[in-house]
Amino acid sequence: MLRPLIRLLSLLPALVALPALAGPTLEGVKARGQLVCGVNSGVAGFSAPDSQGNYQGLDADFCRAVAAATLGDAGKVRFVPTTYQTRFVALQSGEIDVLTRNVTQTLMRDTALGFNMAGVNFYDGQGFVVPKASGIASARQLDGATVCVLPGSTSELNLGDFARREKLRIEPVVLSAMDEMTAAYQAGRCDAMTSDASQLAALRVSALRDPAAHVILPERISKEPLGPMVRHGDEAWRDIVAWTLLAMIEAEELGVGRANAEAMRGAQDPNVQRLLGVTPGFGKALGLPEDWAYQAIRQVGNYGEVFERNLGKGSPIGLERGLNDLWTRGGLMYALPLR
């Protein structure tokens, strides 16, 4: 009995070293020489076009990182703006290769809609914004209030759950797009506006006429783990998207960023050597060049760098890292072992 077992164990290194078979999505990306990425049409800090029409934000930069990992060039991305109504259709139909649109990961989206989650790039929760002059200091004071919300979103479902749970009379005012919701709120059509707290923070500074006249209430009425999604049926592509995110998180933990990625290739730390492709085999396992993670980090940055320039205290949004800090600093960002 021992001899067959020993023989099987002796084959494991060879099995591990087998290259991944390229899936149809990667083949399509390579054939066109471009990644097609579905993003939000305008949420500052996540994905929004700047004055030159170039998309900026956490989600937009993640698209660039995937392009760098797969094509060696972070600029080879075509951004497709999507709405709450079109985002899932665009992914299901193959119009886009990956959806990175601050989308909440849920059981039904993973199963009934036929998507695969590829990691969490922002831990969020749903909140409310109200005029400071209203004197409302808690979401539990919204009894009898009208609340602007987007259709087909987890926010709409969560709002109903919250009202029933807290026995509040809340009348939803359903608007079809973020700019319509913001305009309705500013026009006084609703007493409050609800969405992911990060989106409210972005809207407060980028879309409301007087940010100081509005406050985000302290309660978070849901868990909203946001992250990239891909279609079911192409596990190789899901692996590439997921491990690109994990590599960016690992890079922050190891102290590897855009400025020092090249120099760090000479580091003696075996974890750094594996991350940056000095130790071969890990690119091959994904069906990518050995320097896939190095290219993503050198061209786009580690997770912390991307967060800080788009959402952090030095950005117009001004968010604390909070749950989105590394696990070593009390957050939830934890990379699986790259080995």
UniProtKB/TrEMBL annotation:
Domain of life: Bacteria
Domain Solute-binding protein family 3/N-terminal stretches: 34-257
UniProtKB keywords: Signal, Transport
Family matches, as SUPFAM superfamilies: Periplasmic binding protein-like II (SSF53850)
Database matches in Pfam families: SBP_bac_3 (PF00497)
GO biological process entries: amino acid transport
InterPro entries: Bact_solute-bind_prot3 (IPR051455), Solute-binding_3/MltF_N (IPR001638)
Signal peptide positions (record): 1-22
Record-given protein name: Amino acid ABC transporter substrate-binding protein
